[in-house]
Amino acid sequence: MTMPEQSPARPSADAINAEIRALWVDGVLPVEARAEYARLVVAWAEAVQVERQAPRLALEAA
């Protein structure tokens, strides 16, 4: 019997938000952190969407 393929664990929106906040030093986003900031904002938006859909998907599966 083969095991179903599992997707890698994704960080929560809260965890990603903490990473975003950590990039801001004294309230300023350093120039060298802008690309990482942009990547994290996209990841955060995706995580929020997944987390909002999770309760609905759980109800549909029940």
Core attributes:
mainly alpha, 62 residues, 2 helices
Please render the helix and strand layout as text:
Layout: H1 13-23, H2 34-61
Helix pairs in contact: 1-2
Rg of Cα set: 16 Å
Largest beta-sheet characterization: none
Uncertain segments are none
* SS-derived structural category: mainly alpha
Distance between the termini: 25 Å
Q: How many strand segments? A: 0
Shape: elongated
- Our estimate of the beta-strand percent is under 5%
Helix content: 55-70%
* Oligomer classification: single chain
Secondary-structure element series: HH
Number of alpha- plus pi-helical segments: 2
The overall pLDDT average reads 84
Structure report:
The protein is 63% helix and 0% strand. By secondary structure, the protein is an all-alpha fold.
Gist of the model:
By secondary structure, the protein is mainly α.
